[in-house]
Amino acid sequence: MGKADAANDGPKEWFDNLVEDIEDSELSRITDDLIRGVDDDIESRKEWIEDRALGIKLLGLKIELPNTQGASDGAPVEGMSKVRHPLLLEAVLRFQANARAELLPTDGPVKIAMTTMMRP
């Protein structure tokens, strides 16, 4: 008597655990399919995540610790702090604020002129 045969003995309730009714081989197939899907999802977003990380670094939003490895990254002094200029970040924020004001006005996205119908 298998797992499925033992599980069919009584009536099923809405919140019963379905895993008890599924064969081990089918559970293994479902698990493999799920893990493969997660891995494919991570792989498909890899380039997007790398681009986002580079953007955060270029905008000066990434917290960077002073270099303790010497002058391997071009810093002339060991422990020298790294500073990024905020001009690009300021331009991005200004564009976002202006675009938001234009695209999402306080009166709503549609401007309607109220007219009254004139009767002769």
Explained architecture:
This protein is mostly helical and 120 residues long. Helices cover 47% and strands 0% of the residues. The relative contact order is 0.06.
In total, the number of strands is 0
Shape: flat
Helix-strand sequence: HHHH
Helical coverage, percent range: 40-55%
Largest sheet: none
For the record, give the distance between the C-alpha atoms at the N and C termini, rounded to a whole number. 89 Å
What is the residue-averaged pLDDT? 78
Radius of gyration: 30 Å
Portion in beta strands: under 5%
Specify the structural class: mainly alpha
**Could you list the spans in which at least 5 consecutive residues all have pLDDT below 50?**
none
What's the total helix number?
4
